[in-house]
Amino acid sequence: MAASPMAPTDHPRVLDGRAAVVTGASRGIGRAIAEELADCGALLCVTARDPHGVREAVAALRARGAEAVGVPGSVADPAHLWEVTERAMAEFGRVDIVVNNAATNQPYGPLMDADPDAWRTAFTVNVEAPLRLVQCAWRAWMSEHGGAVVNVCTEGAGHVGPNVGAYGTSKAALLHLTAQLAGEMGPLVRVNSVSPGLVRTEMARFVWERAEESVAAGLPAGRIGEPEDVARAVRWLVSDEASWITGAELLVDGGTRVRAASAGGASNDAVHQQLRHHLPGS
Ligand SMILES: NC(=O)c1ccc[n+]([C@@H]2O[C@H](COP(=O)([O-])OP(=O)(O)OC[C@H]3O[C@@H](n4cnc5c(N)ncnc54)[C@H](OP(=O)(O)O)[C@@H]3O)[C@@H](O)[C@H]2O)c1
């Protein structure tokens, strides 16, 4: 039987009064993280490019009883990252938690065909932006008061796959950045990453929509991930329960890395078949 996607959570108010910035929080994993942190008492500042999506996410957070503000913009724009930090400081007077979740899986395709400018964009969004935002939070609050950072990486950064060279390379760099920052920012600030496997979101729709059953059958957990699976892991990592954990990569992947030994006996072919033959958004 597949592990339940909806493990019960009583939402202890372990983050009461702490302020969190979550990037890319209008849908998918970022939205679930923002809601999970809010349900545990955090004050939320959320971002995404589409202003409508940001407004909608803020309204949903407030409907859950949370204090929340939103700042539309791209994490690729350094001015936006300062604006986000300043807004959180103006509204809440603190920035205890940063979750670098926004990312791009473009450019898609073989690296020999990659446009180096598009390749650079993947690094701007997936690596440079997380560093810049953490610098902002450090200068505004964390260097004196401490805090916790979580970078959303990917299980896929641990190996190679068809057409995802820019994404995988930039996420591998984000993993290294996580470890380096953890070393530099302690003891005041803890920095960790979560690495999801295949999760039911828009970004990965082109994979799971066609192959959910075969991917799930090959996973020890017996199902693909839901955004809430990742959100609960992030909530734990930023809470005091994880106070002796920094520089860690937490796989939230339903057993993807160990699936070769599972009863389903699958390789990673079910995912790679989709990556090979279909494009994001197709
Ligand atoms: N889904 C998976 O299977 C999976 C697996 C491994 C890792 N991940 C990672 O999980 C994270 C979240 O992905 P997801 O699957 O939840 O994706 P998603 O459903 O496509 O959501 C992405 C979110 O980020 C925002 N966003 C995208 N580009 C942005 C930018 N340049 N600046 C600011 N916001 C931006 C989007 O809103 P706008 O479009 O309005 O900007 C949206 O709110 C990413 O880091 C991804 O790499 C996902």
UniProtKB/TrEMBL annotation:
CDD domains: SDR_c. Pfam families: adh_short_C2. It comes from the Bacteria. InterPro entries: NAD(P)-bd_dom_sf, SDR_fam. Belongs to the short-chain dehydrogenases/reductases (SDR) family. This is SDR family oxidoreductase.
